[in-house]
Amino acid sequence: MNTEDLTEEEQRVAKRFRLICNEQIETLEDKLPAVTHPLEKDEILKEIDALLDLADQANERAVELVKTYYQEKQNGS
User: What is the pLDDT of residue 8?
Assistant: First the structure.
């Protein structure tokens, strides 16, 4: 496994992770206009904020996920 490949894999994982977060954020934002209860609206906004934070951490998480994948792959072989 060379470092350049690992970096490309990390980037692909991070991109996919951000895409999933963004899709979920869009779904929540679509629900938001129909919500009239303030506590429910606040809960949705908190979920959106949490997903935005996760999307921001995508690169760090991608590095961890790729390293874990290769460790498990080596242990399983």
Answer: 82
Chain-centre distance for alpha carbon 5: 21
pTM above 0.70, yes or no: no
Please name the residue ranges forming H helices in the chain. 3-31, 38-56, 58-76
Q: What angle do CA 20, 47, 36 make, to 5 degrees?
A: 120
DSSP assignment letter at 13:
H
Return d(Cα 32, Cα 30) in angstroms, integer.
Answer: 6
Tell me, what amino acid is at 42? D
Q: At what angle do helices 38-56 and 58-76 cross, to 10 degrees?
A: 60
Query: Would you tell me how many other CB atoms lie within 10 Å of the CB of residue 10?
Result: 20
Does 5 have pLDDT greater than 80? Answer: no
